Amino acid sequence: MKNSGRCPKCDCTDIVADAKVIDRGHMHVKDDMTLAVYADPGAIFFQGERTTKVSAWVCTECGYVEFYAAYPKRIKLPKS
Ligand SMILES: [Zn+2]
To answer: Which of 6, 46, 53, 59 is deepest in the core (most CB within 10 A)?
Structure first.
């Protein structure tokens, strides 16, 4: 949907791009939704957190939503 500009469910081409998904963080402060992966999720310290913000593409006809990571390579862990 991001690249095609077309809804895969209903074929509509009226798509809202790059909508921010509001999340609530520390002290209930608004922030954009974030994805996180951990290189070592079992570690108590230094879990190796990698994050990226997430944006949504929304079909204005049927409401279908697709999420995209802003920086997908940032959360790619090296193969062990
Ligand atoms: Zn649609």
So the answer is: 59
Whether the Cβ atoms of residue 38 and residue 23 lie closer than 8 Å to each other: no
How many A from CA of 34 to the centre of ligand 1? 25
Q: Which of 28, 78, 38, 75 is nearest to 54 (CA)?
A: 75
63 alpha carbon – ligand 1 mean position (Å): 6
Nearest to 53, CA basis, from 28, 31, 27 = 31
Give 80 Cα–ligand 1 centroid separation in angstroms. 40
Average pLDDT on 25-49 reads 89
Please report, for the chain, how many H helices and E strands are present, in that order: 0, 6
Report the C-alpha gap between 73 and 55 in whole angstroms: 15
More confident residue, 22 or 62: 62
